[in-house]
Design brief:
Number of helices: 6
Strand content: 25-35%
Strand order of the largest sheet: 1-16-17-15-12-9-10-11
Shape: globular
Distance between the termini: 24 Å
Order of helices and strands: EEEEEEEEHEHEHEHEEEHEHEE
Number of strands: 17
Helix content: 25-40%
Structural class: alpha/beta
Largest sheet: 8 strands, mixed
Length: about 280
């Protein structure tokens, strides 16, 4: 398992009964998590997300909380903001992939003496964008949601990356990739975090079972002659790590491929909470 165990200002205190109790800096939140099928002990939280029987849900606050606050991971800072869809704007388990990409970027710079160009698709609020930019990469950040791209800019500013070479694009990822192929643009590193289902800014439909492999095939045409890495993240239930491994092996040039679950440590009992899967590709050296 790829375990994100480097956090100091975030952690899962306990999990069970379909929930996880986390601390985000000085704030404790209780949020639903379908993987936590065992039991846990009751404990107070600053805010609890309650699902609605008709879909969605809402936050119930035990005390007044700021609209947003920041937490730090290594030399990065992120703005945390509870949303109406239970999310906070950050997926802490991805820190293990941020570290991995930074190692690849630093090795690339030593080998080639230049900054790699990285493409971040379905880039959300830019955790990976900030990590790659902090390591010295030039990043193209693509997401269909204008609000998420604005949040990504806030995170970059919080991390001291306002002047970093990051290009922010509100666009449908599939259409953007095809245009980049026609333009002849190339990238040394590519990562994507596709949803199970989604819509582009003008109603384009995305379904991961149908659209993931064709997108990765298209992305393979964007890889430079000096590739650095390719990363796929998935939170789709039932999409096993071996599926991501197979996609990478078939769609990309020959290289080293590894895939596994991504997880976060739980403080009680030495447990680990699974949080999706990642597939990683690197070129043969």
């Amino acid at each position: 398992m790829y375990l994100a165990d480097g956090w100091k200002e975030y952690g899962i205190l306990d999990a069970g009964n379909g929930n996880k109790r986390e601390f985000w800096g000085s704030v404790t939140l209780l949020r639903p998590d379908p993987q936590a099928v065992w039991t846990m002990q009751d404990a107070p939280c600053d805010a609890t997300y309650l699902r609605s029987a008709s879909g969605g849900g809402h936050w119930e606050y035990a005390k007044s909380l700021p609209e947003s606050w920041t937490i730090r991971y290594r030399d990065l800072k992120f703005i945390v903001r509870p949303t109406g869809f239970k999310h906070t704007g950050l997926f802490p388990e991805q820190a293990v992939n941020w570290d991995w990409m930074r190692e690849r970027i630093e090795a690339f710079q030593k080998r080639y003496g230049r900054a790699p160009k990285v493409l971040n698709l379905f880039a959300y609020t830019g955790g990976a964008t900030c990590a790659c930019a902090k390591a010295g990469a030039e990043v193209a950040h693509v997401d269909a949601a204008k609000g998420m791209v604005a949040w990504a800019k806030e995170n970059a500013a919080a991390s001291g990356l306002s002047a970093a070479p990051i290009r922010y694009l509100v666009d449908d990822c599939g259409k953007f990739v095809k245009r980049e192929i026609r333009r002849g643009n190339r990238y040394d590193g590519i990562l994507m975090d596709p949803p199970s289902y989604g819509r582009g800014p003008t109603g384009e439909m995305w379904k991961i079972e149908d659209d993931l492999y064709p997108l990765v095939e298209d992305c393979s045409m964007l890889l430079s002659d000096t590739p650095c890495f390719f990363l796929i993240n998935s939170y789709t239930t039932g999409l096993a790590p071996s599926v991501l491994s197979n996609v990478l092996k078939l769609a990309l040039p020959k290289g080293d491929v590894a895939a596994d679950e991504v997880g976060l440590p739980i403080r009680r009992g030495g447990l680990v909470l699974p949080c999706g899967a990642s597939g990683r590709w690197t070129p043969y050296v």
